[in-house]
């Protein structure tokens, strides 16, 4: 039995240990970062997440006084990268960029993943994106009405590429074919860029992609834009109709990208990374690059980790219902 004095001594030791830990954590956070940070991108270079990551990382690095190195880890709709990120030391030196696919839908599609939503802590939302359906330039249908009619006359014969099952581009595809009521073959790639390359080469009929990575190819007439799942037309693609204008109002494809760290990362470090992300998206350099990509930064009240956490929680449930048949 521990005496009253013994209990007091144990309590004092525990309090001292906690104070020592808190002091050490605060000191670590104050010095953070002392070396380069790695930002894991769950897809191949050149896709939407990669372009946004590189744009934001450059300015975050300036704000933090350290380089942020991009590491592309493609595979399994982004879950390969998230598995890598979840195993990283929770010290702020390894973070990941994710979206509704990698950080919400993937839990339904791959229910046996070695990580859960609780394996990560949110840092900040950094971008809002808009989904587009684009076709190979020689596809016979000239508008959405003709495309749907063609698809219904040729069930299962149209191939639409995406960045892998579970990616945000896959969700664009799923939302589109569901709203259109068509049977199309959805072809997964290890990122948006290789899917777009095959669409440009007419090896597939089209892609489900974000404006950030497909707008330039549409403007250069390498592929033909069909519809954007947005409520307003995009400044970079003024001739591309919205889903409502094209006659398919149920097609909605507005997404977001956020930054995450492994569970256990000190809150003071998260706060520093959040501040750097907030500073980055408010710079003229990021605003200009985002405008070129038909991407927008979050509103000022959407920069907090809490907002990103609520978004993830909502999307996990949303895609659990939508993608129940895709579970592996």
TrEMBL record:
The keyword Glycoprotein does not apply. The keyword Nucleotide-binding does not apply. Keywords: Receptor, Signal. It comes from the Bacteria. Belongs to the UPF0065 (bug) family. InterPro entries: BUG, Bug_dom1. This is Tripartite-type tricarboxylate transporter receptor subunit TctC. Residues 1-29 form the signal peptide. The lineage of its organism: Bacteria, Pseudomonadati, Pseudomonadota, Alphaproteobacteria, Hyphomicrobiales. Coiled coil: none annotated.
């Amino acid at each position: 039995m521990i005496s009253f004095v013994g209990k007091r001594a144990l309590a004092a030791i525990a309090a001292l240990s906690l104070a020592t830990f808190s002091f050490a954590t605060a000191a670590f956070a104050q010095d953070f970062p002392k070396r380069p940070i790695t930002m894991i991108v769950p897809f191949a270079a050149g896709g939407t997440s990669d372009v946004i990551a590189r744009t934001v990382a450059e300015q975050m690095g300036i704000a933090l006084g350290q380089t942020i190195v991009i590491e592309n880890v493609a595979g399994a709709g982004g879950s390969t990268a998230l598995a890598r990120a979840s195993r990283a030391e929770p010290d702020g030196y390894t973070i990941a960029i994710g979206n509704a696919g990698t950080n919400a839908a993937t839990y339904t599609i791959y229910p046996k993943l070695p990580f859960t939503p609780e394996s990560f802590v949110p840092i900040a939302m950094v971008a809002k994106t808009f989904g587009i359906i684009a076709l190979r330039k020689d596809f016979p249908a000239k508008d959405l009405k003709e495309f749907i009619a063609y698809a219904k006359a040729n069930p299962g014969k149209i191939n639409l590429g995406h960045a892998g099952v579970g990616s945000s581009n896959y969700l664009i595809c799923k939302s589109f074919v569901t709203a259109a009521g068509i049977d199309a073959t959805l072809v997964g790639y290890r990122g948006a860029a290789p899917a777009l390359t095959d669409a440009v080469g007419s090896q597939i009929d089209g892609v489900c992609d974000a404006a950030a990575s497909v707008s330039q190819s549409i403007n250069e007439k390498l592929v033909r834009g069909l519809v954007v799942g947005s409520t307003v037309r995009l400044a970079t693609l003024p001739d591309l109709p919205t889903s409502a204008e094209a006659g398919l109002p149920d097609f909605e494809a507005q997404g977001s990208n956020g930054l995450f760290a492994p569970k256990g990362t000190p809150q003071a470090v998260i706060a520093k990374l959040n501040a750097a992300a907030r500073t980055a998206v408010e710079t003229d350099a990021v605003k200009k690059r985002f405008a070129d990509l038909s991407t927008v930064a979050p509103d000022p009240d959407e920069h907090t980790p809490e907002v990103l956490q609520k978004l993830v929680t909502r999307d996990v449930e949303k895609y659990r219902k939508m993608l129940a048949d895709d579970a592996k």
